[in-house]
Specification:
Blueprint (H helix, E strand, L loop, with lengths): L4 H11 L5 H9 L8 H14 L7 H4 L2 E2 L3 H13 L6 H8 E2 L16 H12 E2 L18 E2 L10 H13 L3 H18 L19 H12 L3 H5 L1 H11 L12 E2 L2 E3 L5 E3 L13 H13 L4 H13 L23 E2 L1 H21 L2 H22 E2 L4 E2 L2 E2 L4 E2 L9 H4 L5 H14 L21 E2 L1 H13 L3 H22 L6 E2 L19 H13 L5
Antiparallel strand pairs: 1-2, 3-4, 5-6, 6-7, 8-11, 9-10, 11-12, 13-14
Length: 541
């Protein structure tokens, strides 16, 4: 595909943007040096590699470690490309960079092991040692404690994955590693001001669904130690402030700013919002092509880029949830949407802050977070529940309508006990009728080829569904979902001796698919949810 000179210039200058000022200042205050991301360090070399698809996966190059300084590499690149004759890009890259290690480091599954034994044998494989310091301009943000990565191409910690991974660590008796995960996330909040998508510098413009307070709550309960809640109160509050930045600047005429959205009655809800408005470093070519298609249809390039990046912050990258036409990526409109999953998690954060400050004895702060909790809960039910469909739905704030895209995000209000009894009962009936499938629940009811759509089921969504249904006494439906999901995991394990990140829930003879990369094995949150369900339903066949 050929790209216009105008688009080339747009992307060239967009790639050279600096990280947000508040993040740089936070890092400097904590005396942490974070190198620039690869798109900024390597400019034209980066673009040539990514647009030429030197590596099948765009994430490969952004995870390399330079053998010499980036300045030396770029001088060598300029010299080599200014010479006449053939320039061997692949040879140049191998001479100047160490490529990331292959997944699993040669680990071989033992078909004689049970699925639980297999998962327990994987924890050491998925463990990464604490990082003492940044590694010669690597994109990795160093962490002070050992941690678990998801697996496959995901060689770093990921935010929302980690909550579900922790569920498995706890069932495996690895409380110390679970505590490491919490401490690492608190460290990220203290150093960069929030929890990024993952500990890579190219993720410093966005977060992921905010599960940190639920991680703290889980660890405190498992260890029977309320001091864990108190110790992490400052980090939880700092994360909350980051998600609520800009709320004071909202008006009726300008109802959206950063992550905050002013609803028609003046209450506050939130949206996903990446601070960048340029292609993602790790999926550069895919984003350039999507943006070009959108521009050819009259859309603004920077706006579309932000919608794409914000879809990545949602964790649902990508889904028909975010598409204006319900089918095509070039219609993506993520920041126009107020979603039930994000607002449910922020509601839980407000509740934990209320309880934490009450425990601490700060009645003024506790009362403030209680007030915020009650307003958000009312707004979730007022704006995000659609009585016509009987689901909690994404709400398009720009025209004050529901999007009509039904998804498992509908169960997040149940998982945090935000739903009324009548709404919860209706959602449960509809989930059983529309979603319950032989292998679990699909993410949505649309089949678009995107990985967060049917027929794919995801372990984190199964867990939140089961948790939500249990909260409202829908125990039989919860059991059906969990046992069908476990049987699906067991079927795949029996066939290929692997745990994978997502599963086909419609046709048990087929694998899951779709998205920007192949199905990954490992896999942190699949392992965690399987062990959590096995503990809930030990007699499941």
């Amino acid at each position: 595909m050929k790209y216009s000179f105008l688009l080339f210039l747009l992307f060239f200058f967009a790639c050279k943007q600096d990280p947000p000022l508040d993040q740089i200042e936070s890092a400097q205050q904590a005396d942490v040096e974070i190198p620039q991301p690869p798109n900024e360090l390597y400019g034209p070399l980066f673009r040539q590699i990514q647009m030429g698809r030197l590596f099948p996966d765009g994430k490969t190059f952004v995870d390399v470690v330079p053998k010499v300084s980036p300045d030396s590499i770029m001088r060598a690149y300029e010299t080599a490309t200014n010479k006449t004759g053939f320039f061997d890009l692949e040879l140049f890259v191998h001479e100047h960079f160490d490529l990331p290690p292959k997944p699993a480091g040669g680990f071989q599954s033992d078909p004689d092991r049970s699925i639980v034994e297999h998962i327990n044998s994987l924890w050491p494989v998925l463990t990464r040692q604490a990082d003492d310091e940044a590694d010669n301009a690597s994109s990795l943000i160093p962490l002070p404690n050992d941690y678990i990565v998801p697996g496959g191409r995901f060689r770093e910690i990921y935010y929302w994955d980690s909550y579900f991974t922790m569920l498995g660590l706890i069932e495996s008796g690895q409380l110390d590693m679970a505590e490491n995960m919490v401490d690492n996330f608190a460290y990220l909040i203290e150093t960069v001001g929030f929890i990024p998508n993952g500990n890579r510098n190219y993720y410093l413009t966005r977060s992921q669904p905010p599960f940190f307070s639920m991680m703290v709550e889980l660890l405190a309960i498992e260890k029977g130690d309320q001091e864990i809640m108190l110790k992490n109160l400052p980090a939880m509050e700092a994360e909350y402030r980051w998600w609520m930045l800009g709320e004071d600047e909202l008006t009726e005429a300008n109802p959206a700013n950063l992550h905050c959205v002013r609803m028609p009655d003046g209450s506050m809800l939130n949206r996903y919002y990446d601070r960048g408005d340029y292609p993602r470093a790790e999926s550069y070519k895919e984003d350039v092509e999507t943006i070009e298609e959108a521009v050819s249809r009259g859309r603004d390039a920077a706006t579309v880029a932000r919608h794409i990046r914000s879809g990545a912050e949602s964790g649902w990258d990508y889904s028909s949830r975010w598409f204006a036409d319900g089918q095509n990526m070039h219609t993506i409109e993520t920041t126009d949407i107020v979603p039930p999953d994000l607002n449910s998690l922020l509601l839980e954060l407000e509740l934990n802050l209320e309880l934490g400050y009450d425990m601490y004895g700060d009645t003024e702060k506790s009362a403030e977070y209680k007030r915020r909790y009650e307003i958000r809960k009312e707004s979730i039910n007022k704006y995000l529940y659609n009585s016509e469909s009987g689901y909690y739905e994404d709400f398009r704030w720009s025209d004050t309508t529901h999007t009509g895209r039904i998804s498992l995000a509908s169960l997040f209000p149940l998982a945090v006990r935000a739903a009324g009894e009548e709404q919860a009962a209706t959602v449960a009936v509809n989930i059983e009728r529309d979603f319950l499938s032989p292998g679990g629940l699909p993410a949505t009811l649309s089949e678009t080829g995107q990985q967060w759509d049917a027929p794919n089921g995801w372990p984190n969504l199964q867990y939140m569904a089961v948790l939500g249904l249990q909260n409202y006494g829908e125990s039989e439906l919860a059991r059906q979902i969990a046992t069908r999901w476990m049987a699906n995991n067991e079927r795949v394990y029996e066939n290929v001796n692997k745990m994978v990140e997502k599963y086909n829930v419609y046709d048990l003879s087929l694998e899951a698919g779709g998205g920007e990369y192949p199905v990954q094995d490992g896999f942190g949150w699949s392992n965690g949810v399987y062990l959590a369900f096995k503990a809930m339903y030990p007699d499941a066949e």
